[in-house]
Amino acid sequence: MPEPITAPIRVAVVGHTNAGKTSLLRTLTRQVDFGEVADRPGTTRHAEAIDLKVEGVAAVRFTDTPGLEDSVALQEYLSRLPGESRPERVRAFLQGPEARESFEQEAKVLRALLEQADAAMLVIDTREPVLPKYRAEIEILTWCAKPVMPVLNFVRAPNSRREEWQKVLLESNLHAQVEFDAVAPFVGAERRLYGDLATLLHGKRQQLSEIVEYLARESADRRRAACRVAASGLVDVAALRRQISAEDFSIELRRTEFVRALHEDVGAHARRTVDELLQVFAFRRGDAEVARLPQMAARWEDDLFNSETLREAGKKLGLGAMIGAGVGAVADVALAGLSLGAATTLGATIGGALSGGWKPLWRKLENRLNGVQELTVEDPVLLLLADHLVQLVGALEQRGHAAMDKLRLPSHRADGANNALREVINALQPARGHPGWERGAKPGRETDNDRKETLQAVASHLEILLSKPPLEGKVPELSSTPL
């Protein structure tokens, strides 16, 4: 068993203004409200502590520091101070008047590193050119005689100067480096960061190893929880069933309003599922609402009930091109991606009815108009919704907690996912016969165990989908450069 953590490892997060220090800490601690992130220099003005907790206990205590603003002048000033060693000169500076006047911000950084930290993470915006002031920053930090681990940020940016920065760091004898994009972290980058830190803090290796193991378990737990949330939303939609009288159904306006209301109910389930997924990943509710996801919003509002999209989804399910096609009085229902059935007969779809041709369909409709009608959601709609939710989970797994712009998901997925999507739809079929499984619906006689079994089966298939490309290693498109 791992030894209990008695004291947190203390890490000062340092670097030049706007390098992404606060953004890094938001992502590492999954606290979206920590500090202030804004597109202007000098946002952080005071040193502020934040903890990474393992099993409720502070394992790492980070100190977010202000940006170094005038490092060249400070380097020259430090070189003139008395002292036999560089750390002594830094201490002399912190005790002098300049630490409260000209170099107040720099003093906050050096005091946090010298007096309150076991090591430093030097966050570097690799988009910046290697200027003399940045070289001066690196040298000043090494004067504190504390291990310094550079964290290369924004390395995915097209204008990244990663190789130039790596060369400078090697020249400064900083050989332990880690690449970490605070906006869209690499898969596993968080665990590698702590693993590399262990090479600098030999006495803390065991504790850092335990942190890495904990993060791996936590990541797996989040994925399982997210799959259960997505599965629950899909069960809600699969179980959804709405009734309309034959008289109202025969009136086009009322039928149209009824279908629109059903669409809105499906959208409400989708939005609630998104909100619950955001909670799983510790994002704010508004961070990825449907309105903030342009491509997904378009699909939910249009494509989930769009005839062409339904046809394509129907092909993936092996239903041919008939899904979304309709004739006569039920054309609008078919195009809505809904199934039509009598109250005593479930499971018949417009697509299936159309396979018999025009006249058989019309006779079935005419017979059913004599009683109460029920509408349920077609399988292709479930397939599209399942695909979108899986893509969202995969994107949230790779989204940093400092990201401020819109999250854009890939517009397609690999063909190999189709079989797994079909398995998801098959696992959802028991919900068709249990309208009481829809959350918010009038309770029925179904047992909770039956719903839980279906939920677990669907969640298991969603986990399989998440293990397939393009989610692993594919980066969601982010158009911002938060700090």
From TrEMBL:
Residues 10-153 form the G domain. Residues 432-453 are annotated as: Disordered. Residues 435-453 have a biased composition (Basic and acidic residues). Pfam families: DUF3482, MMR_HSR1. PANTHER family: G DOMAIN-CONTAINING PROTEIN, TRNA MODIFICATION GTPASE GTPBP3. This is GTPase Era involved in 16S rRNA processing. It comes from Ottowia thiooxydans.
